[in-house]
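Fig. S4 source data, part A: sequence.
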Amino acid sequence: MTSKRTRDRLVSRLSENGVSDEAVLDVVANTPRHLFVDEALAHRAYEDTALPIGHGQTISQPYIVARMTELLLAAAGELDEVLEIGTGCGYQTAVLSQLVPHVKSVERIKPLQDKAKERLRKLGVKNVEFRHADGGLGWPEEGHKFSGILSAAAPRSLPKSLCDQLAPNGVLVIPIGGETQTLTVVIREGDSENFKKLTYDTVKFVPLLSGLS
């Protein structure tokens, strides 16, 4: 179930589907996805599919995790701190934590984030800071800017609050839409208020909801 061969098969599938960043593929190969799902679903952990994690949420399909991470790294160049919107089970958090110096992760559903924190603690991850908060607001400390933001939930339109928290040349990777969602990369042009928007795959994410749970 969790053998190297099983993980290698998943990575081969991701590569065949167009993920080419070797660092991302290596991290996916070495991140124990079975620890981020309920024990009853652990035998499906290395399938390239989303799985339920409770509270109406899912662990994202490995292809989507790899794709979003690859897009973020490619567009941003060098990243020092990434804001993750939607900790969920912590799998995407764990992947990011191995590729960037520091991650801040926001989750509105406290029981989910508490479980994620415990998983990452057991894995020895020490460069992630968590906050139980409304993800649509980001991490709104005065003047704090991020070189990268990645959202694991889909707003119907691009949130100005997240764009405002991008550093000069910062990159936001986010699914946008309702019934039909598009994976979108938003790049701040220098330190201006201009944002370049690039669209990619059609995707299906849980909606970005306001409030706490």
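Fig. S4 source data, part B ends here. The first strand starts at residue 51 and ends at 54.
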